[in-house]
């Protein structure tokens, strides 16, 4: 693979912005080079641009290998999928040799007599897979571990899985060394998720903004949040869902993120990419909007960038990406401007690399294949 040298660009290393310096790609990795890349095959002048680590979307629903591959054209080189069934689909995406790496949970833990239970039934999932008690909860985790999932996903909304079974899901996951991610789309679901001790709570409530009682507990228990503001905004704007669910207040979701941020809760960037006809969110490109919404909710642009790079990688235990440094995977994007001052600069993509390979940029706003 040819050696590429990027010169004169500002470097956001995953934590902070740095003055212009030379970054060298040799094969799939970022390397140190005492000769300063004098023997490079390609030299790129990054004057006026910023080099960033490849972006990580911490909540997606990917349907196909083709869709997964298209994420990279927007600079999203890693995604964390939050529900994948049947197992054959899981294996296909997990082993896909494409520019975007896919991590997944497989089937999420759900209750039969719940909204997600009905959705699972519609999707062809047998109700014998539902969690009905503590014994089934332990068996569910064991099944996912045998499948080789990256983390355990749980639906914690009520009505749903009973609290003692939620507690057992967490206990069993810890026993097997697996991290947990819980769907908590309502205020009460956050309470349930915190009581169980789940590692990551995803979504932000629109029925009631989170208060200090919740956010302080999140800090005490080192709970991480993935608010998926893009999805909550889409959800609130769907007239069909409003018809069935009633009016939803997106500002409550924004205020919840602001409250978590003030309290010091770690916040990650995730979009909830999906193909539901009533609340679809496009892959790849939507993460740039999520960063803008996080800034609107009170994060600084630098904090928002960390939410999609170094902090995301650390939270999901991915130690070879999310930062720029020698020996790390050469997942990189070059953008025009300085996104630590103007977060919308991440949209002005000029170059993308995944594992050191140059990736073609998305040609138009609607070019991303939806699920």
Automatic annotation (TrEMBL):
Top-level lineage group: Eukaryota
Annotated Amidohydrolase-related domain residues: 50-348
PANTHER family assigned to the protein according to its UniProt record, in alphabetical order: ALPHA-D-RIBOSE 1-METHYLPHOSPHONATE 5-TRIPHOSPHATE DIPHOSPHATASE
Name assigned to this protein: Amidohydrolase-related domain-containing protein
One Pfam family of this chain: Amidohydro_1
InterPro entries, sorted: Amidohydro-rel, Metal-dep_hydrolase_composite, Metal_Hydrolase, Metallo-dep_Hydrolase
Organism: Neoarthrinium moseri
Source lineage: Eukaryota, Fungi, Dikarya, Ascomycota, Pezizomycotina
Molecular function GO terms recorded: hydrolase activity, acting on carbon-nitrogen (but not peptide) bonds
